[in-house]
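Check the record.
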Amino acid sequence: MQGHALEKVIRILIVEDEVITRFALEEALRDLGMIVAAYQDAESALLHLETATFDAAIIDVALPGLRGDEFANKCLQRYPDMALVLVTGVDAQQGSRRRAPGDRVATLEKPFEFAVLRDCLKQLGLAVPDAPVLAST
């Protein structure tokens, strides 16, 4: 048996109030072998952040209650190395901020193809596989 270097499993937090979008993202990311926690609001996700860490978060900007951009700022205060993808229904060019060198924040405009999100996570420095991970038997 050949030895393979163990790759770190990527932990992703999803904060999305639209049920269908949240479930679709959760399923697609799990198929890529990631550990996923998904919440419909920022307040619930913040509670989870007290006991768990994540490599990245995918955050809907227009959340009820605590807005997604406010939640993202709280994430960065606690975990400055966390990669963040802010998802918005408005023109991403209008609402996006300038990225500084080493910045791990990106903005995607809805609707988007999953391949675009996967590429975005890669650009933020995550080792995201191109194809679903098949379980070995």
Observations:
- The chain has one domain: 11-123.
- The first strand starts at residue 11 and ends at 15.
